[in-house]
Give the backbone structure.
Amino acid sequence: MNDNQNNSNNMENKPKTIIHILMGMGISVIAYALTIGIASVVNTMAVTAIMAFIILGVFGFLIVRFFRTGYTAAAITMLIFISPLLVFLLLFGACAIVGLPF
Amino acid sequence: MLNETWGLKPVLFYIGKYPVEAYPVFLLIAIATGIGVYVWQLRKDGIRSSNALYIAIFAIFGGTIGAKLPLIFIYWEELNSNPDSLNILLSGRTIVGGLIGGAAGTFLAKRMFGIKERLGNQLAIPVAIAMAVGRIGCLLRGCCYGQPTTLAWGVDFGDHIQRHPTQIYEIIFDLSLVVFLIWKKKQELKPGELFRTFLNSYLSFRFLLEFIRVEKVSSLGLTDFQLLCVISLIYINRHEIINFILRKKGKRYERQSKQLQ
């Protein structure tokens, strides 16, 4: 009896997890597309960077929000999508700005 | 493009044709060490709350944004006029901004999600260790260097000028701070007190270190990072400053009332 109940619960949970993963992927793609869109419309790099950081901040907020509301698969998917960008922002180049005197 | 003649050892080794740069390697080791020590601290203190993960996520996001944001404002004109601005934008970062951004991120996370726990006592030591490891990358890459010096321990980073090895000064300071924080953690502490001590110590040290670093002076004869340090220190110690002013005012009022009597 219990085994049957567990099996039916697993069957129900699986599609939900896939939907959550798709949701995470969708939000990540929208965020990336939005950043690229802003970069192509706004010509000044400093303004583009600020916009990108705002999107990054909202992204971080959504990840924690999804973790707390039980959309764990969506949150993990978003973390996987954003990690390369975070690593790139943190590791590329050096502390000093390349090409400037300081 | 990496200038291989600048820095003590900017490229660690080659994989085929591709250089493995010292700076990102040590920064990666620093981040991994910081996360590892943070998890170890949480386990040691018996903290199993998922809030620790949320705070870490907000600290990393806030730290990343904070590390970049001050440089955008400092080099606003250069960023907007340089054709290679994406390269410029991706390359610069500052630890002072990273610390402030990380702290602001955790503050926001707590406010937005109603988190009451204070994990500053668990965060301070990992951040200090990570900073010490990260500075090895700076030393090898040749960034964050000091002004010319005639002292025996001056280092030539590639321009045939002996300079203050400010990266080494900072590594020594960070490691001493780690020892002090470990000792302080064994004493009775208020929640979050250790991170406050860490911020006060590091920002004060950085304020002084800026006098011998090569940085753009902005206003009041101070660099932008020094101004950031001062503003942050005032904000962190705002309650003590207000209490001090009120106590002084209270004493003056007492003296005046005694004179009137």
